[in-house]
């Protein structure tokens, strides 16, 4: 999956946006100011996408795909990095992005969750 496609897909989620953090040399996928993904590179220069998942989901995917490893420069239990030059199917990457977004959304206050849901419904009804 191309990085531009990843950003475009991530921005389809309500209140999600991307930015470039120059000091990291990475593009962040954000829900409000909370990161649910990061596009960057590892120490060898490989382009990677790092997303947050439930530990059991991340572990299962790491067993299925050699290109999915514990999160580079992140908490190794909750974050997972995907080698974008690898063979991980686009649909699997999209599912991982969606699950990461949901984890961050669920950690927000109920009030903010309702606001984001209202924004999403306004977008679909207009």
UniProtKB/TrEMBL annotation:
Pfam families: YjbR
Annotated keywords: DNA-binding
GO MF assignments: DNA binding
Database matches in InterPro entries: YjbR, YjbR-like_sf, YjbR/MT2646/Rv2570-like
PANTHER family per UniProt: CYTOPLASMIC PROTEIN, CYTOPLASMIC PROTEIN-RELATED
Protein name listed in UniProt: MmcQ/YjbR family DNA-binding protein
UniProt lineage: Bacteria, Bacillati, Bacillota, Bacilli, Lactobacillales
């Amino acid at each position: 999956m191309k990085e531009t496609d990843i950003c475009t897909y991530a921005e389809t989620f309500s209140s999600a946006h991307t930015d470039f953090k120059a000091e990291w040399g990475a593009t962040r996928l954000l829900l409000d100011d909370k990161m649910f993904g990061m596009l960057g590179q590892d120490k060898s220069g490989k382009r990677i996408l790092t997303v947050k998942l439930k530990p059991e989901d991340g572990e299962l995917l790491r067993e299925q795909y050699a290109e999915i490893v514990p999160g580079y420069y992140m908490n190794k239990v909750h974050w997972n990095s995907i080698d974008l030059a690898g063979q991980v199917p686009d649909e699997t990457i999209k599912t991982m992005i969606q699950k990461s977004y949901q984890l961050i959304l669920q950690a927000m206050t109920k009030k903010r969750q309702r606001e984001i849901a209202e924004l999403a419904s306004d977008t679909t009804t207009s």
